[in-house]
């Protein structure tokens, strides 16, 4: 087995060297200039050709808008897989007995779901919007490094295949380490699927880091002449801070994954009991793991801070303080990792300091929340679908934040640690928070990207069913946590609480998961049909932003694009997908 794994590693290394050599031989690396059509760059004088058509276009594109769409399609596919896995788990938990799937398969699904939502879906779906809109918002032609941008995306599909390899290769069982991959379990589990999963996660981390460097370079160096730090839009600010977090967090995770691979295959002792110790893995993992929460939530906060004022009829209240709170979250997020380890036996004096910082980081989040509420106060509120999802985001974030404050308290955390309370807390934050903000952004910018309008009745059904399902599912989990129900259990015929009550709460959570699934199917149907045959937007201002003086740069670009298409004698239907 060890010889086979070494041989596989060597073959993979040779393949990567060959790919690097081929890329190094490519000519004109710096000649690309992201013009929308054929022409010459005013700065370089270099001529550029029209984009190719069909699959060749999508395989070779370096246009930031195309790459944003590729990120979006990839992320939706991962989102579907993650939702499918969690549905199977929830149906298993309808009754206390283990009667649908085995415990090992349940553990594999749980591992896949967590990694899919946090790493394979969460960061790429945010990168989809960042790629498409940041150059438009800051007046740049494209990203600073268009080819690196393309490479960063194309690293993601193979990384996902490696993570999911255990589900598709019959000879090896899927990884069952849970998404936290705690040692010594992750070292002792013999399946090669664990090694492939670790390699896939490492590849994904490389992709994310390359993207972060690109966003930082773009925002610093590619801004238009009229875009200063003072008037940089709030979404770009949040992506800038997110990219800084990624630069510090993901390389550390990559290093920890390499050490784990070495422990598994080459006899090193970084995380073994006799060597560095399993607690070392927890320190390294959570030093990435908790900033990852803010990597996922900060751009979502940027969406809400950008979109909510447009439907409140006024500017964002306290813009500078929203920026300052974003920077504060970025700094403080690296000082809270050990609150995940209060029950691990670390020094009590250490625990107290981490408790203090964990409580303190709630303050900048509260600043944002009050700014959003004040933005709506006495505003001319229009309850469009993007606005509904923004309001849902704020309400869910409040529940997720308040429950997090309880977990930051050492005495409370020692009781609720590793119960369903923790699951409910971070799902309110990420599913009720990040995903809701993503849907707000999708609905807000869909007319710009597609040139068409979606079915607004279906969109509102999507919101209300999502809001209902999220609160049924995750509030039931909070209650289960208070009853002492441990998380990550495939069955719950336990003595920790009243089984009948736990059964009822699990069934409520499963009902909520079904409602969430129905809502997302409505959304998917609405998006596909509207993209293909939805009514065309009548003008370049589908949300009437000019009326309140709140139109941002991307909508000005959209107007110019429409005018150029009509002036050239082209048809609008062909322009919006290019």
From TrEMBL:
Statement: the UniProt record of this protein carries the keyword Transport: yes
Domain of life according to the entry: Archaea
Residue span, Cytochrome oxidase subunit I profile domain: 58-544
Localization annotation: Membrane
Gene3D superfamilies linked: Cytochrome c oxidase-like, subunit I domain
GO biological process: aerobic respiration; electron transport coupled proton transport; respiratory electron transport chain
Gene Ontology annotations for the cellular component aspect, listed alphabetically: membrane
Family matches, as Pfam families: COX1
GO molecular function, one term: cytochrome-c oxidase activity
Transmembrane segments: 6-24, 67-89, 115-138, 150-173, 193-216, 237-262, 293-309, 321-342, 354-374, 386-408, 428-449, 461-484, 504-526
Keywords, ordered alphabetically: Electron transport, Heme, Iron, Membrane, Metal-binding, Respiratory chain, Transmembrane, Transmembrane helix, Transport
Record's protein name: Cytochrome c oxidase subunit 1
Organism: Halorientalis regularis
The organism's taxonomic lineage, starting at the top: Archaea, Methanobacteriati, Methanobacteriota, Stenosarchaea group, Halobacteria
